[in-house]
Amino acid sequence: MQRAFFAFRRLPLVGWAALLAALLWLGPLAATAQTWDWLTVGRTPFPSQAGGVATDRAGNVFVAGSFNYRLSWPGLLSIGTGFNSAYIVKLSPTGQPLWQQTVTGGTSGTGPIAVDSAGNVIAVITFYDSVYFGNQLVRNSADGDNFIVAKLDGQTGAWLWATPAGGPRRAKVQDVALNPAGDVFVVGGYVDSARFGGQLLVNVQTPVNTYFSLFVAGINGRTGAWSFARGASGVRHGVTAGGICVDAASNVYIGGKYFSRQPIVLDSAFSLPLTPIGSSTSSFVAKLSPLQGWQWVAAVPVTPMVNRVELNELAWGSSGRLATAGVFAGSATFGVTTLQVSPPNNRLFVAEIDQNGTWQWAVDNGGPVGGNNLPITIRPLPNGGLALAGENVEQFGPHTAPAPFGSSTNVYAAALNANHQWVWAAGSGGSGSGGGFRMFAGMDIDPSGRLTLVGATSGRSGTAPVFSFGSLAVPDTGVYVVRLSPPPVGRAEEEAPDAPLRVWPNPATGTAWVRGGSGAVTLTDALGRVVLTQAPAADPAADLRLDVRALPPGMYTVRRGAVARRLVVSLNE
Hints:
Number of strands: 45
Helix content: under 10%
Shape: globular
CATH architecture of one domain: Sandwich
Mean pLDDT: 80
Oligomer: single chain
CATH topology of one domain: Immunoglobulin-like
Radius of gyration: 23 Å
């Protein structure tokens, strides 16, 4: 034992990094604790909002939101612009604010937000009056909110372009996604009509100003010009998008919820089933080809026994499938799996669907949740599991997230392993019984698997809430950004000589080799983004070499054809 101890002591830093990465991957390990690493707060004298969060490959954090009068981040000059302003702030991997950009004028909020492979930032700003992007003035002539999609330089915060859209009444964006080329795709809703560059979508329902119709639209990431727009049409219905994903071929996948007693038509071939009398909301996932139209739609079956199925999130899950999350009451059927709870009680559900529209599995959280229409974010973990974050959910299988202000009143993070089992939960702590509110706005995961949560808190009646993440206390009013390192959980993956896909060495420091499968090899990071593509060799039996020197340390997925493997990239020697 002593000889082994001294041998370990002589390992170089990279050796320790590789060993740790391998242990985290190959688990299972006994540790189950979570660590709240750091907390950064933007202080505001009046209630403000966080609208979303995104991380880049290096672990930098970008947060978007809105504020009134003044917003102060540690180490940055206090920015005062009057009321109804928007912000985008960049933080380092350790939570240090690096720069802040603002949009002045009549903004109603900012978010969602995304980061492309080059580290540039895409932000969505909702506005009701003329606003300024630096020296660029964008006017809103509508009788209601419209939106602007903007791109910023991730290094400097400089505006690269700002592209408006909307109509005479209201239009909003629910989610944003990027393809590997950096093109932008948004999903949301509008009333009356909406214009996307030279393309006009018209809401044919009556009355036109009552319900939102769905839109999906794309923007050229280099120029900021609208490239396409498609919508769903029908009569007397409401459709709300819950999320959007885009694959490497720019196919778009959307998830959402709807209520309709008349057909909701995507096109002549696809429509959503009606919700029966007495039920409220059902949900769906659909695939859209921008060039060829809607490909398929998969609705959660609707029966009189279904009281509510609200799909609030769609993201890339494991093995190329799409992960969904939301709230249900009554019963909800996902393929061959039916989840059930007695209404009016609500439960959280998580389910995955493949790229052909077939539901794969579904689980619930095993306990009550505090309301419906809850904010939820879901992201893939490096070990093949899923991480969730949101508010007002306390129970996750055998694990409990703290709820200091009453039953199911909290901000939480939780995780499922690759076998769809709840493996840990963490939550905001404290000892108060009120005195303020917390708002969860979003969560993202960096390439190393660490979670970043954002939201806002505000004191009430001059009383600061006792609100904390571990020992990290949140003040009474401000925008919080908190980093969580989850416990190592996972399953061993054997590299048998006859495995359909072999990847070695693993961990890799500069070069990795791939054997098996067919066609090109793609490497995706923990966020599902394609970071490397390797064309097949002339000899189909030849091993393929992957140059991973430019990649940051972390967990990646190597995919070739229908097979995939995990790969740990360690520090280069």
